[in-house]
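Schema walkthrough. Field components (list of strings):
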Amino acid sequence: MADKMHIKMTVNGEEQEFLAEPRELLIHTLRERLDITGPHIGCETTHCGACTVTIDGKSVKSCTMFVAQANGADVTTIEGIGDPDNLHVLQNAFKEHHGLQCGFCTPGMITRATKLLEENPNPTEEEVRFGMAGNICRCTGYQNIVKSILAAASEMNAAKEAAE
Amino acid sequence: MKDDVTREERVDALGGMGCKRKRVEDARFTQGKGNYVDDIKLDGMMFADFVRSPYAHARIKSINIDAAMALDGVAAVLTAEDLKPLNLTWMPTLAGDKQMVLADGKVLFQGQEVAFVVAKDRYIAADAVELVEVEYEELPVITDPFEALKSDVVLREDTVDENGTAVDGAHGPRGHHNHIFKWEMGDEPATNEVMDDAEVVAEETMYYHRTHPCPLETCGSVASMDKVNGKLTLWGTFQAPHVVRTVASLLSGIEEHNIRVVSPDIGGGFGNKVGVYPGYVCSIVASIVTGKPVKWVEDRMENLMSTAFARDYWMKGKISATKDGKITGLHCHVTADHGAFDACADPSKFPAGFMNICTGSYDIPVAYLGVDGVYTNKAPGGVSYRCSFRVTEAVYFIERMIEVLAIELNMDPAELRMKNFIKKEQFPYQAALGWEYDSGDYHTAWEKALKAVDYEGLRAEQAQRVEDFKAGKTRKLMGVGLTFFTEIVGAGPVKNCDILGMGMFDSCEIRIHPTGSAIARLGTISQGQGHATTFAQILATEIGLPADSITIEEGDTDTAPYGLGTYGSRSTPVAGAATALAGRKIRAKAQMIAAYLLEVHDDDVEFDVDRFVVKGAPEKFKTMKEIAYAAYNQAIPGVEPGLEAVSYYDPPNMTYPFGAYVCVMDIDVDTGVTDIRRFYALDDCGTRINPMIIDGQIHGGLTEALAVALGQEIAYDSLGNVKTGTLMDFFLPTAWEVPNYETDFTVTPSPHHPIGAKGVGESPHVGGVPCFSNAVNDAFKAFGLRHTHMPHDHWRIWKTANDLGLHG
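Field assembly_structure (string):
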């Protein structure tokens, strides 16, 4: 067992400071140390995307990142994307278009989709499918996930235009 | 209620059956507030991890736990020796066999559970697993069921007596020590006679490969033994929580009232979470031993290697017909590889599930089915992966046999199907292998499907493509995959369906609150199907209170009525029926209360959407909301206070959903890459409760079918090593590989179900697999291909093209 490291990070806007073994995986830090259980563990090999979070502006699968690598990082999880009184457009769109079933992939899926729409605010269906290919869903067959994301994009663009 | 509200508006306000109600589950899931088993955190909770066998067949010479126990933070290391005094070294399986909880002297498959390490966190547990020293002596490995039936190697020592003679198994005599059972249905001599005299006979052998349900959430449990009160609480990924409680009680000796089993949110099941696994049992024992809550959650490799494979059927078929294409008989023999323990999740009396639905949608006068179950050095399981028991295998079998027969007859396969469908007026239809189909209108569905896709146009385009290919103008072939399936779901009548002796009924209990809202609890458990949404819709229509005012709860055995759980598309056919009937009991009492309040005779009021009205005087009424209040605040002569009901439903028959699917696929002959151009799915699931959820189920089931047909498999090498143990090797399609699906429907209600619903969650998987596979086979038909085995991954398709000489 290695010596514990002094880790500081910002998670969903809150400063966190703790001692952890450097080998601790970020997903366990979030889920077990900080009780942020929105991101899930589906494969532990970076394939399924259930653990997707945003780190310093990029989508990252937190199951294969050591907490030591996240030292000093700014982390956003599904819990930081919207709250019950102020849901993100994507959170509403997934409900509206039946973009989820068992819900296990959903936090990672929506977290990834927020970044996808930042990177490409007006994606084609093909671009959505390609951009979401790192997140596996076993229930929906993706059709309604794609629909949800495209609908959210339109809504966000309309809101932006209205604001301009 | 205001007079200006129309009847239609009152119906709409309920959000009842038939509307596309948005899901009530989604708020928590979209905000990361689901509560899955790995989210459970209890004071002092320990984590557990397994030491697993690297060998597929080996004797265990010794296990040394000293170094592991010496590691700081390790609380216990359990081995078979620790389970012996508790009589828990082996546990019963659902199939009448038994299974080792922890390796008892030998291991029989790679990844088998050998020791259970309990530590204060998951990292220490993983470290300690590495420190457990196990000495193995390798034994000969058998991964082929045909070899197993010839081999002198005795895989399971409990299958032979002291003289080495095979003893009887749970389903009768064994023909060989590695033989588990022989199961036969139908009339073999009569079938053979028909075959001998037939004008045309087509034969084919097909391997339905081993695969895995692989829900995104793996299996796990948290056991907490409260020694002060003598109560055990077990949270876990259970598709049948009440059965788990009964089994836990029988195994542990703890009285059933002292056990509470909870299925929290479940991250997909697809059959993976029906069985009882060693991890569940060990977490209970470890909690009793350590006095602390113990969590066990398998990782993905453990999931793919050890819990619940599906399929692995070698199917040999023979189908006979007249020259003009009237089918006269069907013969099917299956060699079923069950792995090291027969842990199939089937009703007790059906060792090959409902494989005897293999006559499909066709009027076949005589048939025979024989199934031989075999032990090998592969993982146990044999679960129903998104299908009712072995129905996927049955439908794949008949839908491939139809295609092969069409080739033999030189007849269009759509026409061959049309010619042999069971006719609408033949229902209820008695099939040759024993089932009574409840209802169907296959001709209408098939005609609608063929018209929707312009079937003739597709065949013309395909013929042109073949010409172009031969002329060197294209390197892409086109396949038209057809499937017409009939499922059998909703197990089942208690008289012939049980799980470990528990009849397969289901239940619903309703309490109406004074202010006109309600809670209903069911014996089932959702794993993504949206029960909280759809069961409230059934109730809204039945009891006239808005779906939004009805909470649905499942999965806590302390509060929910006993039921057999959710799998085999049984929730709507069985628990849905219980829900409707419990609702009708509420309504019957409400009628008496309404009559009293309206000062008329019971027979003089009738139910209308959300109220009881005086017959012939619609202005005189009491709403269900008013009636609910009256049930609690008025003394009504001869009527007990309160408004509650419970219903336990034993279905008189199963339900038989059906559907017509067409897949249009382009195949690149040089790369083997497939492109699904179009997929049309017509489903008839009887009465439709929520069309939005039905479509979602179909999209998902088709995608799992695509996976299985086009690449997903659990493969072993000859030493019994699992070659597909991670998601790198085990194919789960992403958004990039999956097409958009076109859905359609007809409605043929089930005549025996209270609301006519048949179940839908598994139809698309059952029908989808043969449809994708038929498309691949069809693409190469013009070049002489009769049949090629799944999964049709790029390499195998390339190989097929190469074998047919298409690479020049």
